[in-house]
Amino acid sequence: MKSNSYFNPLEWAKKENAPQKSTITNPIPAAAHGDWASTDDYAQAREMVNRITQAGIDLTDDYNDWFRIGSAFASGLGEAGRELFHELSQMSSKYNPAECDKKYDNCLHTGNGSITLATFYQMAKDAGIDIRTARQLQGNVAEIAKSHIYQERPKKDNSLNINTDDKMNVTKDDCDIATSATNHYSTFSDKINPDDWCGFLRSVQDSMDDVQSKDKMTLAAIGVVSGAIPNYYSIYDDRVIYPPLYFLFCGKAASRKGEVGLAMKILKALKREIQKAYHAEKEAFENEHALWEAKSSKKERAERGPEPKAPSYRSPIMGANSSFPAFIADLKANNGWGVMFDTEADNVSQMLKTDYGDYSTLLRQATHHEPIIYNRVKDNTHIEIEEPRLAVCLTCTPDQLPGLFPTILNGLGSRFLFYNLTRELKWRNPFLRKEKTNEQLYEELGERYLQLHHMMAELGERRIQFVFPEPFQDRFNNYFDELLQDQFYMLGDGIVSFIYRMGVYFIRIAMVLTLLRRFSNLTPDKPLFEQHEQAITCSETDFRIAMTIMDTLVNHTAHIYTGLGGEKEQDIFDHPVQLNPSELRLFKELPDEYTTKEAKKKATELGINPSTAKRYISDYWKKYQITEFVTHGHYRKINMKK
């Protein structure tokens, strides 16, 4: 039987030794939440909610409005805003306490600060609520809507254009916003019981002292291992997928990005073994080639056969500073698998520029194991990789991001999972000593991983399938369905491709967790897989861990996406009006003056969802400023150049 339950990683993560959440009737004082909310913020929002409920106004019946209010309270008030969210939600006939709590949990955990309390105040004002007295509580609250989508802005040329060039126009300052140490980035290591990690990853966790470092090294270890697992696959959306992941760690100088390089030592023993075999083959080739050349007489040359071919260099670690032809040749020599790793993302950026898009194409195709074909007539080169299995692990600073992702049109950015690294302005004692250095610890992990690699490689033609149990499928689908809706309403259409690929990456993370747990629990008297075994199943523990990790990565990726210029609200008025084709189609069909009801009717005729149309109507007025508000539900087009 399928389960309709929705998995809430926050609730699971807080289940042990966590204080009980406040109830509606017993709100947690705003002052108890540190930087999340000031007493004045809470008092102002409280007064506004009282006025709205006393007037009997429902601001939450529409999902989009409900979500915006929840995001505004979560951003400005933290946990203290939960009770206010419930009170406003109760004005709707759709109110469900459990769903309301679930939505607020989601807003707390995935919000990126782009929707603020200013949104709520403007919505209240639009509904006819007088907000002047509430503003006076802070004295200078006239600035409350500054740099926000709802602020009043000077009129400008509203020439109507369809957006056909989706350039990011990223600046260093833009990206600095996404990695500022003042932001409250989500973490996962503090939400997972240490005993729930498998032995292999528990060693990684224990090697670091702070939560952020535990996060980054665990992700790096998962990423490195994902690119070097043979004979292991799963089925997702009716396609075969393999474990490799793309991770990018972004942080300013001194944010300890370099520590990520420790994870590459997990492949040191494997690299040593592969290169030992390569050097043995090379020596055999040189001896054979010397004998071949020694046959120099005319008769001997006729009988000596074709010239021996030199073996190709092989390594599980692929250099990001290689030219495209060299990189694809190395990937082919390694049977299509490997790990691209670099602590200087500029190396990749340079290759993206000099190789005329080939590098970008390879990275995009390899994500979904699409065939890579390389032909060059000039040197008679033909390389074909049927199922590339490439993992990528990069670190960068904020000002290196534009070089990596100058445009969102080609989709390279959505292939990555991002993690923001903040720096703590605190001196670390460089003289502390552990029983083992981190280099030694990760090299030992590499020796352990080599055993796992051998066990998987020895399966030969036999492959092991990772299976996602049906109850988990329901919880997975529910989670991503809601995530897709929320992120779309918050960040716009550009985030959609990121969310879709996160679904694939969730499965890949679960694949690595599940296999490492099987290996960690292995006893000397048993094989990794019994002779009859064809599949391995995800456990409840690893499902929860994967969900908690992904919930964190959603938060970080949304911040990076916003910093890269993906539909940033603060910049939207600095450019000519840009409507997507659907927005433009509806706008052209509307008369010079129209009501909300008329617009919804016209949208239905055009095959546009009425709820979507309602958002368009709001955007025409508040976002694009191509209509003006006449009276409630009544709008007029302005300054249009047909």
According to DSSP, the number of beta strands is 16
What is the 3D form? elongated
- Sheet with the most strands: spatial strand order: 5-6-9-4-10
Q: What characterizes the major β-sheet?
A: 5 strands, parallel
Provide the residue-averaged pLDDT: 79
Helix content: 40-55%
| Strand proportion | 5-15%
Structural class call reads alpha/beta
Q: Uncertain segments of ≥5 residues (pLDDT<50)?
A: 1-37, 137-184, 567-576
Task: Describe the model.
By secondary structure, this protein is an alpha/beta fold. Helices cover 46% and strands 11% of the residues. The protein is built from 23 helices and 16 strands. Helix 3 packs across helix 6 (117-126). The model is unreliable at 1-37, 137-184 and 567-576 (pLDDT under 50).
Compact description:
With 642 residues, the chain is of the alpha/beta class.
